[in-house]
Each structure stands twice: as C-alpha cells, then as structure tokens.
Amino acid sequence: MNKNYVLAAIIAVIVVVLVLYLASNSLAPTVQNGDNVSVFYTGSFTNGTIFNSNLNSSPFIFKVGANQTIPGFNSAVLGMRLNQTKTVTIPVNEAYGPVNPSLIIAIPLSNFKNQSVKIGDVITDSQNGRVLQGIVVGLNNTTAITNFNPPLAGKVLTFTIRVVKISK
Known about the structure:
The relative contact order is 0.22. This protein has two helices and nine strands; from the N terminus they run H-E-E-E-H-E-E-E-E-E-E. It is an alpha+beta fold. The strands form two sheets. Strands 1, 2, 3, 4 and 9 form a five-stranded antiparallel β-sheet that branches.
C-alpha cells in the first residue's frame, strides 16, 4: 500500500473525529437561567486553603438565577456544559460582601442569663424578625463582642466547579 494513501486515511480519520467532537460539544446543553443544576465544587481561599467541598458527598443542587447561591457562583455556572469543570475566582462583592462593622456588636453579658460565654461561641440573636448567627470574637467583664457578618464576608473565594446534571 502506498504511504500517501495511508497518510491520507489517517488524516481523514482525524478530521472525522475532530468534526464529531466539535459537533457533539456544540450540541451539548449549556446551563441557562432557570435551569436546575447539580454540581460538585471545592471552595478555597486565595492562599489555597480549602474552606468547603462536596466532592465526597452529594452534589449541590440549585436553580440558576433564583438567588440560591452567591452571585459569583451563579454567574460561574452560566454557559457551562454537562461534565465541564472550571475554576473561578470570585471577588468579595460577588461573594459574601465586605465586612460590615455595624454587624460587630457588643452584647451585654447580662443578656446571657448566667450562661458561660467564651470566644468562638456561636450566638443566635433575633433582630427585626430575622435570626442572625454570630461568633463571639472578644470578651471583657461586661460584654461579648459578637461578629454577625457571614463567616466568609470580606474574602476573595476560588471555586472549582463541575456540572454533573442540567435539568431544563
């Protein structure tokens, strides 16, 4: 058999495989607003420290565009294809927002009705019909300084996300 025919056959096979690959990817559904998606993710800080992951658990399921996630996570999955993985860095304003100093509150120890309070304790407080959780970050003889900001407020976050299901 002539070498040119073999080379031409190999090139033809490569072209057919490439065309089929491109066609299948362009026909694959992409995540759109209103879709229910299931994803696996790993969340980390910019220094690489992982703060959360569901890789050894169940997928995270949410409706895109329904304010069920932080805005940057929602935006990251838009346009992704089934089984696609990508890594995104989400700025503070697209994550949990900046630290709000007005949510760091001095609570009188008398409010705890003789309960022992220590740094790191989680405190629940009801304000204006909302239940807030905060962490005691400081103590003195009369007050517990409690931070009611979300724990990830003020942080730039990195997520590696893999879409495992898209329901239109």
